[in-house]
Each structure stands twice: as structure tokens, then as C-alpha cells.
Amino acid sequence: MESERYLVQEFESNRPHLRAVAFRILGNAHDVDDVLQDAWLRLSTSDSDEIENITGWLTTVVARICLNRLRSRQRRPAQSLDDSSADVERLVVLTAMTPEEQAELADSMGLALLVVLEMLSPAERISFVLHDMFSFSFDEVAQILGKSSEACRQLASRARRRVRTADDPTADPQRQREVVDAFLSASRSGDFQTLLSLLSPDVELVADAAAVAIGARERKDGPFDVATRFSGGAQSARAALIDGRAGLVWAQARRPKVVFDFTVLAGKVTRIDMISDEDVLDELNIEYLRHQKGG
User: Fold this and answer.
1) Angle subtended by helix axes 54-72 and 138-145, to nearest 10
2) Is 0.85 topped by the overall pTM?
3) CB 150 within 8 A of CB 209
4) pLDDT of res. 170
5) Is 34 exposed, middle or buried (0-12, 13-18, 19+ CB in 10 A)?
6) HEC profile for the chain?
7) 206 CB contacts (<8 Å, ≥6 apart)?
8) CB–CB of 33/10 below 8 Å?
9) Assuming Cys at both sites, which of 66, 170, 263, 294 could form a disulfide with 25, CB separation 3.0 to 4.6 Å?
10) What is the dihedral of CA 245, 153, 76, 112, to 10 degrees?
11) How far apart are CA 84 and CA 37, in angstroms?
12) Which backbone phi and psi does 78 adopt, to 5 degrees?
């Protein structure tokens, strides 16, 4: 009885924190209540003597339950972000909330951010929320996701870029696809001047450790170096939507080996991430496209 009272007190003292974690990950008050109920059941049936840090233990449990719920949501085919039907679907979670719930969420993270988070993969969302909002180390996030710390770092970084570009009025999805298509055409034909014209003055090409391991340079900075890297290349790359955004993919035996994740602002390529880490690739929703020759 004393042990049960202790667990109840510990759970209730942690409830506000656990609710905040679940609410920011899921953005749905009804789901949050279910998650907390599930977490309590797991705590009440656990061997509390083996738990050194109940707050940490409960936070990890809540994050894993949230991850399972995110992954169980029906995964739709990738869609361009200017697809009106896709926008409506992303707003369902908001319109289903009561005004009180919307006000609470707006105070805690902002409704606009929730819409952006809905575009992320479950692992990106978990990595971003836990690390950026709750100061989890990537080692701790890795234990929850079952991935490497480096992969979690990449997932959080990718989520961060998507959050930033979603707020930029120049980040037009259709324009991005046109720019990436023109980039692919210029790369294949060796049109160096066109490549330069498509690149921002501060463009950067960044390869992850797995891409470096198969021969890529860790990074290149500036339009000349980036254009030189691609001019006459990309012959085997395919145009694709990467989680709904235009990019390029190099695959072997239909298995993606390197994803070129483009960030395009104001009609210029500002960053290209070369992703080869299998833990990250597994989280990407890739839809191959028919390349329009001539951009």
C-alpha cells in the first residue's frame, strides 16, 4: 500500500511534465490522456525498486508510447506541400481540438509549428521535440528510437530545417521542384553556368558520415565548389519527392543509397544534404518522379 501511494505521488508530481512532452509530440489532447493512462499502467505494474530515476523513466516510456502512436497513423503517399488536399488533412488535428485545447497548444508551442510537425516523420518529430524542446541528449533519443546517436542528430537537424523553411514565404514547393529539376538537367549536361545561377552565394553541400565513408567529401562551400562537384555528374540520380519535397536519389537495386536533400529559398539552392545513413534513409518517404528534361 505504501509503495502504491509513493508511485501515485510520483506520477502525479510528474504529470504536468509528461503531459507537456506528449502534447508537443502528438498535438492531440485526447491522445495525450490515453498516453498518460498507458504510462501509469506500466509504472504501476513495474518493479519500482529497479527504477533509479522515475522522471527519466516515465519520460522515456511516454516518448516510446507516442512514437508507437505516430507510427500507427496511416502513412499517406508523399504529396507536394502546395497540395490543397494535403493541407486540409494536416489541419484535421487542429479542427478536431476544442478552443481550450487550441489555446493551450498555442501557448505551449504555436499552432503553426504543430502543422509543420505533422509533416515530419515520427523519428524526426521525436528527435526534434525531445532534443530542441526538452533538452534530451541524442544518446537518450537514440535509446528511445533504437537508432544511432548520429542518426538522431541528423533527424533533428533535418526537422529543424523544415521548420525554418516552412515559415519562409519564398519556400514555394512548386518552385523548389522546378529548381531541382533544372539542377539535375544542368548537372547531367555539364552546364556549369546554369548550375552557378541556381546556387545561393552561401550554398553548402554537407555529407553525413555514411556518405563520407563511401567517398563523398564532408562538405563543400560556395557556388563554384558545389557546381564543380555536380557538373557532368548525377547521371544515375533520379528526381524524387523526399517527404513531399523535391530532391534527388541515387539507388542500387531499387534501394536508396544516397539521398540529396535540397533546401531552396527564393529560387536558389541554399543547402544540399547528402544522406546515406541507413537509420535516416529508413525514415524517409521517397516517391520517384519523372524528370522533366530541360528543367
Assistant:
1) 50
2) no
3) yes
4) 65
5) middle
6) CHHHHHHHHHHHHHHHHHHHHHHHHHCCHHHHHHHHHHHHHHHHCCCHHHCCCHHHHHHHHHHHHHHHHHHHCCCCCCCCCCCHHHHHHHHHHHHCCCHHHHHHHHHHCCHHHHHHHCCCCHHHHHHHHHHHHHCCCHHHHHHHHCCCHHHHHHHHHHHHHHHHHHCCCCCCHHHHHHHHHHHHHHHHHCCHHHHHHHEEEEEEEEECHHHHHCCCCCEEECHHHHHHHHCCCCCCCEEEEECCEEEEEEEECCEEEEEEEEEEECCEEEEEEEECCHHHHCCCCEEECCCCCCC
7) 218, 219, 271, 272, 273, 274
8) no
9) 66
10) -70
11) 36
12) -60, 140
As given in the structure block, the three cell numbers for residue 241 are 519527392
Residue that is written with C-alpha cell 509543420 in the block: 116
- Enter the C-alpha cell of residue 183: 539542377
Cα-based distances in Å from 113 to 47, 70, 71, 110, 245: 38, 17, 20, 5, 18
Kindly state the cell numbers that stand for 205: 553541400
Fill in the amino acid letter for 218: E
Taking only the tens place, the pLDDT of each residue in 119-143 is 788 999 999 999 998 999 999 999 9
Residues of the chain with pLDDT under 50: 74, 76-96, 294-295
